[in-house]
Write a structure and sequence with these properties.
Layout: E1 4-5, E2 16-23, E3 50-54, H1 55-58, E4 67-72, E5 84-93, E6 113-117, H2 118-121, E7 132-139, E8 148-153, E9 158-163, E10 173-177, E11 184-188, E12 193-196, E13 205-210, E14 217-224, E15 233-235, E16 238-239
Parallel strand pairs: 1-16, 2-6, 3-5
Antiparallel strand pairs: 2-7, 3-6, 4-5, 4-7, 8-9, 8-15, 9-12, 10-11, 10-13, 11-12, 13-14
């Protein structure tokens, strides 16, 4: 079946100043999982070019999946030519109220801050610096294939983690429809997950997804078969651009 794309496309924002640190080691194993619920970032397609966002950017999970370009700016640790790395938001960098915002509490509100996976940080600056000034901008998430829906729960409670979202990369709301139901509004659980307390077992599932950034709505018809299984991921034939 041919891939369907949302009409219109995400437009990159202007460059803005921020700061960046890193977490984890060169393997990025410490970045797996995270507050967005993406789990193994290799199997879900995000890899090691990821970042945890400060809370003002994370927006209670609505910032999950957003894509950014980051370049080091104005520090001796910056690599020559100010190379750009593209990252996806997969985690939260929580505030540290025990430390001042300009000395260790880098993710305290209202700071805009990226705590990058070390392999991503290493592409723009010498990691020995610890923290560097950066310029950043939001960009469209370039994805191959359709949105993916990882199903959890049971026949009476459905929890869906949404990955591989193109365009703005983020989600503001979701609805689910079974063969025997109307559209059911799903509540935001945490990160990039949404839930519905309905009897949906044994039904073909369709999903309607609202983009947080563009407010576009996309419908993924028959995204999961009637014999869907909790723990599996199903790919739609549509995506945002």
């Amino acid at each position: 079946m041919a891939m369907r794309r949302a009409q219109g496309s995400f437009v990159a924002t202007q460059w803005s100043p921020a700061h960046a640190t890193f977490y984890g080691d060169d393997s990025a194993s410490g970045t797996m999982g995270g507050a967005c619920g993406y789990g193994d970032l290799y199997s879900t397609g995000y890899g090691t070019n990821t970042a945890a966002l400060s809370s003002v950017m994370f927006s209670d999970g609505y910032g999950c999946g957003q894509c950014y370009e980051i370049r080091c700016s104005g520090a001796p640790a910056c690599y020559a030519g100010s190379p750009i790395v593209a990252v996806t938001a997969t985690n939260l960098c929580p505030p540290n109220w025990a430390l001042p915002s300009d000395n260790g509490g880098w993710c305290n509100p209202p700071r805009v801050h990226f705590d990058m996976a070390k392999p991503a940080f290493n592409q723009i600056a010498d990691w020995n610096a610890g923290i560097v000034p950066v310029m950043y901008r939001r960009v469209a998430c370039q994805k191959t294939g359709g949105m993916r829906f990882q199903l959890q729960g049971n026949a009476y409670w459905l929890l869906v983690f949404v990955t591989n979202v193109g365009g703005g990369g983020d989600i503001a709301g979701m609805w689910v429809k079974g063969e025997k139901t109307d559209w059911i509004s799903m509540s935001h659980n945490w990160g990039a997950s949404y839930q519905a307390f309905s009897c949906l077992g044994g039904q073909v599932l369709s999903f309607k997804v609202l983009s947080y950034t563009s407010q576009e709505t996309l419908v993924a018809y028959t995204a999961a078969p009637a014999n869907w299984v909790a723990g599996l991921t199903y790919e739609a034939t549509t995506n945002f651009t």
